[in-house]
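This is your field. Pick holes in the following sequence-structure pair:
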Amino acid sequence: MVCKNVRPALTWYPMEKIRLSKVMSERGICSRREADRYIEQGLVLVDGEVISQLGTKVSPDASIELARTDKKTTILLNKPIGYVSNLPEKDYPEAVELLPPSHKKLNVAGRLDIDSKGLLVLTNDGALVKKLIGPDAEMEKEYLVRVEGTITKEGIQKLCRGLYLDNNLLKRAQIDQLKPNLLRFVLKEGKKRQIRRMCTLVGLHVIGLKRVRIGHIRLGDLSEGKWRYLNKNEAF
């Protein structure tokens, strides 16, 4: 008798389904109580289908989104490099393409240029837009900036206070050197390509720029290209 080494057939088991309200809560979409209310109102879409039955269980990796309503919606997105944040550019995708169809008309509150990545806010809340980027806005925005060139004490002092862009003196900034080629910028204004232009004025070339905080809201562990809702207990 010849014995053959035969591998047993593999058996695949589907992932155990979880209550929809629990999944929504764990993803930070809303609380379980709010989820049940949205489900009852027929405002929750799972893989593109409306779910209105309380207690419905779904796959842990299901696509879940809220149907559009008149309620204020604010989304936090970790924008990758290569995406434009507001004005369309030929041959480049827009950041809103990373969102579900129901959220693609949200407004960007504080642009990030195509070569930068990190925290991007999209909202239909006009008051919040004014608070973040209005002419009188004083909201702190924090960036990690990797540079080429020699960082000097004098250069950092100029970056903090003493540079002009577009014939205007910039607001005081907070600049810290974290590593030999890594700076932390905290700004209270947002001129076009401001950090890159500031660095050029002190002999530095920016090779990487990431926004990690706006006000009290941090990017945290949100993965690149992913998004989440601003929770009701969070505030800028």
Q: What stands out?
A: Helices lie at 20-26, 32-40, 126-133, 153-160, 194-201. The chain has three domains: 18-66, 74-134+219-229, 141-214.
